[in-house]
Design brief:
Order of helices and strands: EHEHEHEHEEHHHEHEHEHH
CATH class of the largest domain: Alpha Beta
CATH architecture of the largest domain: Alpha-Beta Complex
Number of helices: 11
Number of domains: 2
Length: about 300
């Protein structure tokens, strides 16, 4: 079931954009009230695969793409990334919307790793001046519990159908073949990520190499590196960019996605995520591995 829209009326702009008819303000105001064209606003907040429920987000993006009254979209991003496959799925969904109507991705706090991957599907990428951008890379992490099991006097018996069936299992030391196989998987996903970045940002090989070290940058440096298209102080500026790209004479928005609970609005950790489970672990792990600046 697709999430219902929450309409948010915005006042008509007090300036006339190039190409607009010079009507009296009253006529423009009346037009804004009767015109059904809207800009969709969707949030990508939290770890992809954690707080971000990927299937729900992709369904919402599909609804935006199909709705003819939604003429543009602003994707508000504050995420350290998340699962590789799910991040790429969101990228494809955003790109499908951008193929039919303007999409502005605004990085409000953090747009790192898989979240930046998703933003690359947009028509334009903007960022708050102190936002963190980048972390273009792939990581595979797993614990090795061999010594802990030995101290507990515990052994694991494994029956498998192939040499790599237990690849990544914590109860064994990885062999050289295991390490090579895991590195090949990481490299393959990394190539998909970097191909998407190069295509979205128009990077040549040298420019791509400068930004794929896994590091992050503040938005002004990300702008100089070509990772984003501009700096944006607030959501209103991102909406104005979407409005201009869509050629709309006024700005009215519809916010889509699940309604945030009171606890979510108060910033309570884990609010809205249901009982503790794998998604909680993904959320915690994602933010722990992402730089967070404090004052």
């Amino acid at each position: 079931m697709e999430p219902g829209p929450r309409a948010e009326a915005q006042p008509a702009l007090g300036v006339r954009s190039q190409g607009m008819s010079e009507e009296p303000w009253g006529m423009l105001h009346l037009s804004a009230l009767t015109d059904r064209r809207r800009i969709a606003v969707i949030e990508l907040r939290g770890v992809i695969g954690g707080a971000v429920k990927t299937n729900e987000l992709i369904r919402t993006l599909g609804a935006v793409r199909r709705n003819r009254s939604l003429r543009a979209m602003v994707l508000v991003v504050d995420s350290p990334g998340g699962a590789a496959t799910e991040s790429e799925a969101v990228f494809f969904a955003v790109r499908k919307v951008a193929a039919e109507k303007p999409v502005v991705a605004w990085i409000r706090g953090t747009g790192a790793s898989g979240a930046y991957f998703a933003a690359c599907g947009a028509t334009r990428i903007l960022a708050f001046p102190s936002a963190i951008v980048g972390s273009i890379g792939v990581i595979s992490v797993r614990p090795i519990a061999v010594e802990a099991l030995r101290r507990l006097g515990t052994s694991i018996q494994v029956t498998k159908t192939g040499p790599f069936k237990d690849l990544g299992a914590p109860w064994k030391e990885p062999s050289e073949e295991d390490r090579a196989k895991e590195a090949a998987l990481v490299d393959a996903i990394f190539r998909r990520f970097t191909q998407a970045v190069a295509g979205a940002r128009g990077f040549d090989d040298g420019e791509l190499a400068r930004v794929t070290s896994g590091e992050v940058w503040l938005a002004p440096e990300a702008l100089s590196l070509g990772l984003i298209d501009g700096l944006c102080d607030d959501e209103g500026a991102a909406l104005r960019e979407a409005q201009q790209l869509a050629g709309l004479p006024h700005r009215r928005t519809v916010r889509l996605g699940p309604r945030r609970t009171v606890l979510q609005r108060l910033g309570v950790p884990g609010a809205g995520m249901g009982p503790p489970g794998p998604r909680w672990i993904a959320e915690l792990d994602g933010w722990l591995r992402s730089p967070r600046l404090r004052m």
